[in-house]
Task: structure prediction
Amino acid sequence: MNKCVFLDRDGVLNRDYVDYVYSADKLEILPGVAEALTSLKRAGYLLIVITNQSGIAKGLYTREQMHECHQLMQKAFSHQIDHFYFAPGHPTVSESLSRKPGSLMFEKAIAKFNIDIKLSWMIGDKERDLVPAKRLGIKTIQVDNDDSRMADYKAKNLPDALEIIFG
Result:
């Protein structure tokens, strides 16, 4: 079985904007993220992004624009992300079992990549990122400034979260 670090995208890997990140001009990788991902890969972790992308359902950007953004991220991260799972729905437009706080994206990844949840982590900046992980028994780290009581651990950012994961 494999160990994994599940990662929310916006607010963990790149700067989050209220009006969404879907183009090169808005994609700003956060400091130290590429190096942190390299450290996790060297330690044997799979790296899987689990992201809500409701701007697709709202008609603000296309799947193709999102995929282009993910390709730019892969380039910036030396292609270390093992898979991107995304939920394009939004409750105001369409219901979705995939959208966090639902756990379907996690369940798909666990099955596809033979992931041991006891050895795995979820890093997110919002409580909704942590809900499905907690439900499945995955340890959680909240980064940034959203004040959730749900997180098992809190860190300033992804690089600081490594201190928790590596003990």
